[in-house]
UniProtKB/TrEMBL annotation:
<feature type="transmembrane region" description="Helical">
    <location>
        <begin position="69"/>
        <end position="87"/>
    </location>
</feature>
<keyword id="KW-0812">Transmembrane</keyword>
<protein>
    <submittedName>
        <fullName>Putative membrane protein</fullName>
    </submittedName>
</protein>
<feature type="transmembrane region" description="Helical">
    <location>
        <begin position="93"/>
        <end position="112"/>
    </location>
</feature>
<dbReference type="GO" id="GO:0016020">
    <property type="term" value="C:membrane"/>
</dbReference>
<keyword id="KW-1133">Transmembrane helix</keyword>
<dbReference type="Pfam" id="PF07681">
    <property type="entry name" value="DoxX"/>
</dbReference>
<keyword id="KW-0472">Membrane</keyword>
<feature type="transmembrane region" description="Helical">
    <location>
        <begin position="30"/>
        <end position="48"/>
    </location>
</feature>
<dbReference type="InterPro" id="IPR032808">
    <property type="entry name" value="DoxX"/>
</dbReference>
Length: 148
């Protein structure tokens, strides 16, 4: 739930800053870029947090090799993508790549929910709610990729 709250709150606060006169944030498109970048920073850093890393490694479907490496790789890609979203020349391409990345990572969430795993001592988000959040995240990335 924290990633969704971060996306919504970050976008809203960035939009308010735009309305208050911050020219770079004047409009929903740049505000959404900030919100998604904040969300990806939070989730990307979680890949390296001692408290969350083991749970994220456990989410990787058992049939995939090198789960530690996959968690590191996806964390790095999320952080690089977050930075690229903040630079207008790279934002569209970054958003498109991030949409693909989020779709590729979704099976880990399905696997974790089906196996009833915990993440940082709490049960993973149930699959229906996680699916709705993932659709929201991918939609935000697609909107940035296709937007003005």
């Amino acid at each position: 739930m924290v990633p969704l709250i971060t996306l919504v709150a970050g976008t809203g606060l960035a939009r308010l800053a735009g309305l208050a006169g911050v020219g770079a944030l004047d409009g929903w498109h740049p505000a959404l870029r900030v919100g998604l970048a904040l969300m990806l920073t939070v989730t990307g850093l979680a890949h390296f947090s001692a408290r969350r890393r083991a749970g994220l490694v456990a989410l990787v479907p058992p049939r995939l090799p090198h789960p530690q490496f996959l968690v590191t790789l996806t964390g790095v890609l999320e952080l690089l993508g977050a930075a690229a979203l903040l630079a207008p020349p790279t934002a569209r391409w970054a958003a498109a790549g991030l949409a693909v990345l989020m779709l590729a990572m979704f099976p880990a969430n399905v696997s974790g929910a089906r196996r009833k795993l915990t993440l940082a001592g709490r049960p993973v988000t149930p699959l229906p709610a996680r699916t709705a959040m993932q659709v929201t995240f991918v939609a935000a990335a697609v909107a940035i990729s296709l937007g003005s």
